[in-house]
Structures are given as C-alpha cells and as structure tokens.
Amino acid sequence: MNALQTINMRTNFFKTFQLPAVVAGIAVFMLVGGCSQTAGILPNNGDPAQKNPTTPASAFSQFPDIPVPAGSKIIVDKTLVFGSKPWFGQLTLSSSGSANAAFDFFRGNLTGFGWEEVTSVRAPTSILTYAREDRVLAIAIRGGTLTGSELTITVSPRGKPQPQGGAQGILPPPVQRTTQ
Question: Which of 39, 141, 160, 163 could bridge across to 74 with cysteines, CB 3.0–4.6 Å?
Fold first, then answer.
C-alpha cells in the first residue's frame, strides 16, 4: 500500500466517525442539561385570590404557609418533604438574592404567615427559628460561592414538654445532697 492510499484511508476513517462523534457529543450535552438539579418556583405571597386556575400549579404551592423569595429554585437533590397539610421535612432553595436580602425577606414576611419568631442570628450561616401551633421552622441561609444564596428550610413537629419528676419522666429525679 502506498502513502496516498494510507492518507485516503485515514481521511475516510475520520469522515466516517466524525459525524457520529459530534452527534454523540450533542446528545450527551442535552442529557446532562436535562438532568438539572433545580426546579423553578413562583413566589408565594399567601394571597389565594391571586391564584389563576388556568395557569399550572407552582412547585411551591405545596408549601402555602411560608413565603419564598422571587426567583428562587428548589434544589431537588437536597429536598425531602413529607405530607401536605401540614407538611414536614427539609426544603432547600437557591436564591438569586444575597444572604442578607434573604434574611431580611424571611424576617419581614414570616410573621404574616402566622409564624412567631423564636430567635435569629445573622452570621456567615444565618439561622432563623420560628414556631406556630404544632410546628417549628428553622431556616439556614448561606451565601453562594459567587452570587446568590442557599436557603435550607426545615419544618418539624413541635415537641411536647415533658412533665417534671414522677414516674412519667424519662430520667430519674436528681440526687439531693445533704450535709451531715
């Protein structure tokens, strides 16, 4: 086989496999793009009169008792929620706003949704804790790497106070020291 035949064979080989490689590359790109980890949600302002029955339900409609900053997205692989009325679990959102803006948003809006502030701390990871009837809400807010913030909203059942002393308590009564 001469050099010209070798070059023609190599050219035909690359022409034969170049198109399938490009198609495979595009398919992989589309597949990875389709495996997005976030889902867009509409902000919940708590006003049922503004719900339009002709528009599809927001991903956030399952959580009518908490406000959400506009433009937030659910981080699906960090979210685990049980039930619907009431719901419990952990809802993780990515927000385009800063951590300080998210802190101010929740602090200014949660009381309008029937939550009572228990405590709040503004820090690199800010924590807001609220309570209502039989549930407790804790929000951890972390600034994003470059922009935005990550919001982790945890809602759990409110614990019932344990009676003091007696046979019903988990721990025995404390030892009383006497001096002789």
Answer: 39
